[in-house]
Structures are given as C-alpha cells and as structure tokens.
Amino acid sequence: MNTLQTKTVGQMVTENIKTAHIFKKYNIDFCCGGGISIQKACERANVSFEDVAHDLQNLDQPTSRATDYNNWELDFLIDHIINIHHRYVEENIPMLLQYGTKVAKVHGERNPELLKIQELFAMVATELSGHLRKEELILFPFIKKMLQAKKENTSLARPQFGKVDNPINMMEVEHEEAGEILKKIAKLSNNYTPPEGACNTYRAFFSKLDEFEQDLHHHIHLENNILFPKALQLEKTIQYSE
C-alpha cells in the first residue's frame, strides 16, 4: 500500500498499460498528469485512494509482450508512435471535422454546445497537425541520431535547439494544451453521451470523439512517460562535438 501511495501514476502505467483503464475509471489523468503520486492524483480527482489501490492490486493480468512498451528499443517505439498514433490522428481528423460541421449545422440551434465543440475540435486539430510535424521532422530524428551515436560510440553535432530537453519541454506543453481542449469537449458533450433520439451522425460524432481522446491519452503516455524520460537519459551517455 505504501508503495502505491508514493509511486507516480505514470510509473504505474509504464509498468502495466492495463492500469490505465483503472485510472480512466476514476477520472485520473495518466498522461499529462502522470508525474504525480497515486495518492495525490486520488486527492485531485476526489476519489478514494483505498478504492483505487484495491483495483490496482487486484489487476492480475500481466502485461503481454505486445504491450510491454517500457522494454521496447526507442527507435522501435518511435516508429510505433508514428505508424499507429500519428497516422490515427491524421486519418481521423478530417472525418471528425466533417462530422462536427454537419452535426453543428443540423442540431446546433437546439444544442448550442455543438457549436463550441466544433470550434474546440478545429482548434485541437490545427495544433496537433503542427505538433506531429515537429516531432517527426525534428525531435524523433534527433533521438534516433543519439541512439546511433551511442551504438557506434561516436560524438554527435550539437543540434540547433541546444539540448534535447528543449523540444521535449515544448512537446509536453503542447500535450497539456491538447489535453485541456479535449477535457472541455468531454465536459460539453456530457462525456460523449448523445441526447436521447440523436441521429446516427450525431452518435457517430460523439463515439469517434471519445475514441480519439482515448487514443491521444495512450499516445501522450508513450511519449511523456516512456520515450521522453529515456531520451533525456540517453543524452547523458553521448558526447557532443563542439
């Protein structure tokens, strides 16, 4: 019990991705807010630590190889993030924008929150599009260069951004901003619950928004709690050529 009180939410999810479902059940943020202790997270979410601890201790399904992200090589993890999560975002944003426009046009007068949801999603879509490009063109390639330098025991030219914590800090801030926007959307949509009698497009829109948020939570967890801390440690093992 004492270990659970002091261990961070991010550490717990890193060790076993299945614990994310428990934190989600109790509305505990395991991605952007994963750096605080489970005890503190329970206090912030106004939930019983004993209840959360009970569920965590009774989670007896070990993490399989397929989801043991913490033991993956960093270059493999990066490729996974790009091929699975970045592609998901890129493929689903156009669909969600279309859904949002149609639903707001048809139902916005009766349900004005849809207009705000449409506006907020358009905002997060724009922010994420730029965010993914920065990761794919700047940060991720540099992490792979660090891996190569360590493998070959060679020095590395110092990047224009100085040290790797600079782009990492920027990415974490942008993760937080995207997460906050999606929290607002979840609140406006009553946690993606369509009103009684909602049409299929309305229901599909909310269902896809819910799915999008869940994928983004997992996506951010892989970066904030696994990739970025390991990249910071990796940088300590290489030498920069001046």
In words, what does this structure look like?
The structure is a single chain. The protein is an all-alpha fold and 242 residues long. It is 70% helix and 2% strand. It is built from 9 helices and 2 strands. It has a two-stranded parallel sheet with strand order 1-2. The longest helix is centred in the middle third of the chain and has 40 residues. The radius of gyration is 20 Å and the shape is globular. It starts with a helix and ends with a strand.
**What is the number of E strands?**
2
Please provide the ordered H/E string of secondary-structure elements.
HHHHHHHEHHE
Look at the structure and give the mean pLDDT. 90
Main pleated-sheet profile: 2 strands, parallel
Strand content: under 5%
Backbone structural class: mainly alpha
Taking the alpha carbons of the first and last residues, their distance comes to 49 Å
The Rg value, from CA coordinates, equals 20 Å
The helical percent reads over 70%
DSSP summary: helix tally: 9
Instruction: Give the overall shape, derived from the CA principal axes.
Output: globular
Low-confidence stretches: none
Strand order of the largest sheet: 1-2
Protein traits:
mainly alpha; 9 helices; 242 residues; 70% helix; single chain
